[in-house]
Amino acid sequence: MSFKVEVIEKISALITAAFGLVAALAWNGAIQELFKLVFGPQSTLVAMLVYAIAVTIVAVLATIWIGRAAAKAKGERESVAK
Q: 55 is in which domain, residue-wise?
């Protein structure tokens, strides 16, 4: 693999990660506003803990779902190639 291809791949990965971060920050703001509606405008320790736990659960479930979808897609792609 040439140096130019490696640089393009790394830049592509960094740009993708940057968009992922922007999307995560947008969702973070939206979810925080939702929790303010539910728990009130004051950020209490309980509200912050509920928020952290909820986000962690969603992140774990999303990661599992994405991993399974990627594995399934990879399996389908390999079976088509054979």
A: 3-81
